Amino acid sequence: MSAMETPAPRPGSVPAEAQAAARPARATTTRYISWVALALMTTSSVASLRPSPTMAVYGLACIFLYLIPALVFLLPTSLVSAELASGWSGGVYNWVSEGISKPAGFLAVWCQFAMTIFYYPSLLGFVASTLAYVFNPDLAASGVWTALVIMVCYWTGVWVSSRGTSGVAGLASGGLIIGTLIPGALLVILGMAFLGQGNESAAPMSADHLLPAWAGLASLVLIVNNFLSYSGMEMNAVHVGSLRNPAKEFPRAIFMSMGLVLVIFILPALAISWIVPAEQLSLTAGIMQAFDAIFAEFGSQWLTPIIGIMLVMASLGGMLTWLAGPSRGLLLISRKEGYLPPFLQRLNKHGVQQNILVTQGVVTTVIAMAYAFIPDVSSAYWIFSVITTQVYLIMYLLMFVAAVKLRRKHPDHPRGYRAPMLVGLCGIGFAASLAALLIGFIPPSQFESGNAGIYVAVVAGGALGLGLLVPYLFYRARKPSWKTVDEGAEEVTA
């Protein structure tokens, strides 16, 4: 997450999953795709420049900190979700419902939705810091500016989404090129030219800095953010049935996409670490700091606002395509099972779940205002990123347990793909996810507020309250009258 950065979670992926859950089964002609095409699709859905400043703090050690989560989280998540997707349609709700129970399935799909409540403030916090370099770089450190940008962008997105505008998802397709590949490649090329002119790297590049300096658990807490960067693979797994030979081709696609994602994540992070000293690096504005510095070096600072606009356009396009997706999936399931009160199930004249979006917007506005009261914008950004990751990790914990139970309960159930050593993969993925969730409660060494108690209280309140308490209260308060008997509800599969 890059949270989901996010993907970060892949823009537009949840709507597809929701639609898959809502469609009745019918005979179709299979349209095959190549494993290379799937690898590129996966890369475009996961790769992002947004987490680069977070890892640039570690310099050369970012290679290690990206590689470890890729092996213990990205790989198990990809292979396990591929087996589930090839055997059970309907996405994570059906997987967890069949493997564990319907309440657990509701918790899983709730976490997919709830993580976006904190994902949007962190994503738009990045937008605010980037946009500051278009007008006045000093605004990047202003909590009031950040809060205003978050609120304006979010509510504008709600207005656009509530009108049922078609084709919004297409905005994200160009985001990979406009906001990731072009700026990322430019940053790396200019960074290499910067070093080639004899300038000294701001971060040491010697072999003894390949591993992060150990200063207690707090020195490794930033690795948690990489779990969000790699999240969303369960969405791409739905395409496993489109391969001619899933058993051989899906692993190839995953390993190729892992390599491409690592290149896109690592090289820009290294380039930033060459240019901006770690102690001066902002977790939200780090990319723009690096571009501003490198353009100044080559006398081309007039390009800084242009790059900023490119990054902002890509991020806003991703936000719009994601905005209605998770809530739509939650709505479809709640209409069938009665998990949400009727007020939240109502649609506007365009058929959009406007009440959910507005309610989510009120919470997002309250969270956005925290930027105005937390002294350091980077600290606020980090807190919201951690909460986003932890809420999403709850869903992954349930997914790994469900996969093991389904393999044991239904060993002969038809599957287009069977993950090798599934129990071992689930064990590694579960342990890594649980460790990341627990480590998230530890303030990172870069956290400057100085009050660990407040940090733990905010993270625990956000992650456990929103991820566990709220869905529990909805489930306990549900009534038979909350089940909506209409065409939309009847189409949802259990």
TrEMBL record:
Q: Which UniProt keywords apply?
A: Cell membrane, Membrane, Transmembrane, Transmembrane helix, Transport
The record describes its membrane topology as:
Multi-pass membrane protein
> What subcellular locations does the record give?
Cell membrane
Task: Report residue spans for region: Disordered.
Answer: 1-22
Which superkingdom is the protein from?
Bacteria
A GO CC term assigned to this protein in UniProt: plasma membrane
Transmembrane regions listed in the UniProt entry: 32-49, 55-75, 107-133, 139-161, 168-193, 213-232, 253-276, 302-325, 356-374, 380-401, 422-442, 454-475
Q: Name one GO molecular function term.
A: transmembrane transporter activity
User: By what name is this protein known?
Assistant: Amino acid transporter
Organism of provenance: Virgisporangium aurantiacum
